[in-house]
Amino acid sequence: MRNFHLYALALLQAQGARAPEAGPGGDVVELVVRATRLSQAVLVILILFSIASWAVILFKLWQFRGVERHTSRFLDVFRRSTKFSEVQSVCKSLGHSPLVGVFQAGYIELNTQLRQPEISNGPVGNRPATPPPRPTLKSVEALDRALLRASAVEVNKLEHHVPFLATTASITPFIGLFGTVWGIMSAFQGIGETGSTSLAVVAPGIAEALIATAAGLFAAIPAVYFYNHLTNKVKLYASAMEDFSLEFLNIAERNFT
């Protein structure tokens, strides 16, 4: 029994001696501070990419929230109004909606085509005065082209900054991989200089490599997710603009042809 107590005491002392060594090894900040200049530069680049991508993500989410709110209100006004001039009067207050830009382009083209030159319709001799001719749409194709151009402009506005997320998602894993390779090279260099293959010699370089890999994934994974999410949002709004253009054309043809 006495031998068992002595063995247990020796085991606890050995574990207590090893416990403090695990702390510094798991300290990420200390590993970063002790890393090489190149490894630190890789981490700084990845952090900057991550900050910029999150700034884009938060801005686009805020922008699309305003787009959704203004689009819903604009469609409600558009479908309740009986005149395009009534819709035009509320466009300034709903400027976040891409449908506003499409509508204004169509409204300008429609007014341009419907504007008639002033013709004297007064009585000439014994001929009575004739009423002014009813304004008619001269070219549906021109109106359609105006709506298509406006839709393209609005899609470009919605896509602004979104490609940066694709760039972040594609490039940061490779930057992290570069840091990983450099850390492994440092580990092998340490083995060559000391002639020892013990874990104490290899661990710092491997830890640097793992930190670079983790930082690359930390920047890339949110960028991939939100790039797909925002791209899908843009596609939905592009489809909504196409539907709205067809609805606008139908109303114009029904009333002015």
Index terms:
257 residues; mainly alpha; disordered N terminus
Question: Which helices and strands, and how do they pair?
Answer:
Elements: H1 2-25, H2 28-34, H3 37-80, H4 84-88, H5 98-114, H6 140-159, H7 162-194, H8 199-256
Helix pairs in contact: 3-7, 3-8, 5-6, 5-8, 6-8, 7-8
3D structure, described in words:
- This protein has 257 residues and is mostly helical.
- It has one domain.
- The chain has eight helices and no strands.
- The radius of gyration is 34 Å and the shape is rod-shaped.
**Mass-distribution shape:** rod-shaped
**How many distinct beta strands?**
0
Strand content: under 5%
Uncertain stretches = 1-26
* Share of residues in helices: over 70%
Main sheet overview: none
Radius of gyration: 34 Å
**Category from helices, strands and their pairing:** mainly alpha
Number of helices: 8
Q: Could you tell me how far the N terminus lies from the C terminus, measured between alpha carbons in angstroms?
A: 107 Å
Q: What is the count of structural domains?
A: 1
